[in-house]
Amino acid sequence: MSNAPRIFPAKERGAALLTVLLLVAVIAVLAAHGIDRLAGATKLASNSRELSQAKSYLIAAESIGMNAAEDIVSVSPGRTTNFGGWNGKEQSFPVPGGIINAALSDGGNCFNINGLVRGQQEIWTANQQGVAQFARLMELLDVPGGDAADIAASVTDWIDSDNIASPTGAEDQYYQQLEQPYRTANALISDVSEIRAVKGVTPQIFEALAPWLCALPEAALSPININTLRPEQAILLAVLSNNGPDLVRTRQFLASRPANGYADLNDFWAQPFVAGFEATSEVQAQTKLTTRWFRLDMSVQMQSAYVAERALVDAGRKPARLVHRQRGDAL
């Protein structure tokens, strides 16, 4: 019997080689896919860690902001001013792996959308002074007067406790007839974006209004601090007037404010310019010398994570407390 090695035909040798090469190719593809999946999982884990770290940094920044608000109030208990340039000034703090950007500003120098109503124990009725100021704000932002009055009435109906629409407003009956029906809140607004659901508030009108609005957790007229209101915020002072003062003159008046601010509200309202507002006692009482509400605008930038936050701080209590926070790209 011959022990000579078996010689495979050339066709069989070629098929075997092709099979081996095909197996190698398949294994290479699987290996590449596995490596890619592993790299993706590693990246996701890294991003998750950085996002978690960024949120932890924001919590730390909140604490720093609350302490800063307390310090500002305690330095001068009877008069909060812009001394030190803190109001709206952005500061950056390097941290391991990233950087925190934060700005503290007077959170009461805005139009409090919840000032459209008054009341207690969750029973809200229209505050006509707030309604008039809201309409005036929109007119100063070039919203036609008729539309401004209708929107002011509709937002008031959205908040108030009854289900009776004002002559130019809207209650459940209007919204229930829409293609996608819904109901009014009948409660204080927690975030100004809520008014986008109100009759008459178009995206263009909301975009114009949003920078000037806030939703303080109280049914009260906007607590404007005449000592911290910046000239570029002159429109918030102008809405207190029944005579529609010129915004340029209002800015000039704020720019000429005493360096240490006003020590007495009577001194402020005795100034010839604001005396021309013919403001009622209710309106005069809504102006303040001190600040209770502070706004924190913060962001954390990491290598592969970015988180932004806006928070509202109540410095009227000791210690100061965080009453609202919002995170997201909308900020």
TrEMBL record:
GO cellular component assignments: plasma membrane
Pfam families attached to this UniProt entry: T2SSK (PF03934), T2SSK_1st (PF21687)
Lineage top rank: taxon: Bacteria
Keywords in alphabetical order: Cell inner membrane, Cell membrane, Membrane, Protein transport, Transmembrane, Transmembrane helix, Transport
Entry keyword annotation includes Phosphoprotein: no
Residues forming coiled coils: none
Domain T2SS protein K first SAM-like: from-to ranges: 109-218
Alphabetical GO biological process terms: protein secretion
Subcellular location: Cell inner membrane
Residues covered by the T2SS protein K second SAM-like domain: 224-282
InterPro entries documented for this protein: GspK, GspK_central_sf, Pilin-like, T2SSK_SAM-like_1st, T2SSK_SAM-like_2nd
Keyword match Transmembrane: yes
Family as reported in the entry's similarity comment: Belongs to the GSP K family.
NCBIfam families per UniProt: T2SS_GspK
PANTHER family, alphabetized: TYPE II SECRETION SYSTEM PROTEIN K, TYPE II SECRETION SYSTEM PROTEIN K-RELATED
Name this protein carries in UniProt: Type II secretion system protein K
Originating species: Parasphingorhabdus halotolerans
